[in-house]
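Why should sequence recovery work at all? Because a backbone constrains its sequence more than one might expect. Tight turns favour small or flexible residues, buried strands favour hydrophobic ones, and helices have their own preferences. The token representation captures these environments compactly. In the example below, the structure is given first.
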């Protein structure tokens, strides 16, 4: 157990410092690792950050915090209300907690989120109160705390009485702490790669819920996990997708095989070197997670896998070359794919920058990078900007291949590389063109929505949560 935790959980400094490392040829262990029992220790020990450069210490497992954490120690029923104050000027209610401190809730929010049987459906965990019935001028006639402090009861001027449990209110408080905890349930913070890429075992992931949870947590945190000791038969990769939820189908099918063939419709279907890239940049709703199953590896020279954390490289570029980062994150690029699959022609296209930022202008939510699928049309860039844009793109490309960021290793037959398809670029070295070379890769995709959903469900089950984090 200790050796496993040592391998998976490194000191914070190892994540935050630039990763100066030699050219990696990683050999993955063939023995099954007992990760099932490591899940609680792993989730408690990981230091999550708000970004790759943050040092603020948070808990990765969101259900270890607030009321869920309390339920595992003193019980969620210990969250008690001891007082209430109606703030008429602000149209708020201030409640006081037995543990100290207070929280403030808007009147309209309390009415909209009434938990009584007439307003909330306990099976579907969804609101049944109709928005058309919400009176925005509503005022409370009285608001009081139950004698045992377990509930807040609000009587409104229309005669309706809203009821909310103390524990339910506590985790939904409008304070920064509760908001941060909720964000952790939504998405886990990303971390830089440790010296050894995270690994899992096929049988453990497929048969054990704790091992499945650990793999999903690692995948969301690092963007890459190698699953060892997988099947050696073609067509098995969708079993892993089904273990999570279901396959995200593309015009290449439900799954696909990468085998060198004459006149390929995609450059991946050749034995030539495959440059670092992210799949499907021409999809707006592109699948966020990719599974690459090495069914049969070429035992001779060539066919090595290359991966690079495009998110960390982008953060490095932002720090060291801010003008280039601004260029790659603001100039729209045309992405295209002309394909003929299953007798049907496809013409996919999308215009989006290489580095995509969220509305805050800071958070990177997606990287687009694929030399073959970048169109010759450049409709979003004026001619005067093109040279500077190419300088920025070439710099970004060279950093992706830099020994500081790029890892090179050979996947063993049966291994599955699971990747964040909006973060981690992957490629391979070339291998001989010969009928005696039988390298075979299978692949498929899953949406991040499904991966995160499965992680949340497993976390609730693993922590035996009482349900206050679910639904509304």
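From this structural description, the recovered sequence reads:
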């Amino acid at each position: 157990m200790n050796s496993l935790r040592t391998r998976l959980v490194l000191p914070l400094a190892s994540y935050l410092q630039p990763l100066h490392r030699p050219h990696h040829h990683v050999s993955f262990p063939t023995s099954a690792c007992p990760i099932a029992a490591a899940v609680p220790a792993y989730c408690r020990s990981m230091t999550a950050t708000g970004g790759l450069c943050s040092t603020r210490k948070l808990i990765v497992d969101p259900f270890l915090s607030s009321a869920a954490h309390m339920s595992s120690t003193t019980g969620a029923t210990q969250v008690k209300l001891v007082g209430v104050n109606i703030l008429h000027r602000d149209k708020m209610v201030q409640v006081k907690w037995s543990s100290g401190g207070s929280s403030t809730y808007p009147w309209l929010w309390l009415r909209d989120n009434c938990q009584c049987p007439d307003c909330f459906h306990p099976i579907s965990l969804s609101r049944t109160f109709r928005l058309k019935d919400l009176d925005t001028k509503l005022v409370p006639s009285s608001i009081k705390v139950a004698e045992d402090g377990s509930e807040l009861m609000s009587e409104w001027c229309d005669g309706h009485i809203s009821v909310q449990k103390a524990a339910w209110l506590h985790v939904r408080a409008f304070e920064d702490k509760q908001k941060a905890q909720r964000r952790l349930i939504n998405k886990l913070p990303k971390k830089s790669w440790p010296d050894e890429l995270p690994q899992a075992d096929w049988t453990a992931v497929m048969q054990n819920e704790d091992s499945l949870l650990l793999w999903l947590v690692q995948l969301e945190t690092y963007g890459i996990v190698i699953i060892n000791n997988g099947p050696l038969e073609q067509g098995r990769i969708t079993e892993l997708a089904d273990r999570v939820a279901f396959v995200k189908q593309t015009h290449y099918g439900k799954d696909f095989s990468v085998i060198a063939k004459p006149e390929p419709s995609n450059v991946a279907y050749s034995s030539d070197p495959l440059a670092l890239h992210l799949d499907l940049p021409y999809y707006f709703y592109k699948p966020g997670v990719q599974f690459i199953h090495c069914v049969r590896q070429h035992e001779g020279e060539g066919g090595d896998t290359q991966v690079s954390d495009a998110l960390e490289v982008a953060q490095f570029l932002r720090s060291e070359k801010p003008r280039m980062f601004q260029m790659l994150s603001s100039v729209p690029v045309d992405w295209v794919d002309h394909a003929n699959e299953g007798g049907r022609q496809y013409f996919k296209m999308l215009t989006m920058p290489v580095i995509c930022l969220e509305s805050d202008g800071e958070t990177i939510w997606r990287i687009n990078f694929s030399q073959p699928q970048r169109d010759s049309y450049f409709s979003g860039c004026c001619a005067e900007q093109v040279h500077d844009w190419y300088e920025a793109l070439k710099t970004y490309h060279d950093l992706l291949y830099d020994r500081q960021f790029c890892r090179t290793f050979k996947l063993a037959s049966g291994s599955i590389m699971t990747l964040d398809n909006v973060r981690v670029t992957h490629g391979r070295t070339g291998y001989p063109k010969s009928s005696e070379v039988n390298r075979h890769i299978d692949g498929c995709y899953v949406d991040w929505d499904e991966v995160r959903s499965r992680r949340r469900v497993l976390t609730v089950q693993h922590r035996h949560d009482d349900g206050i984090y679910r639904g509304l």
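A few observations help interpret the result. DSSP finds 14 helices and 24 strands in the chain.
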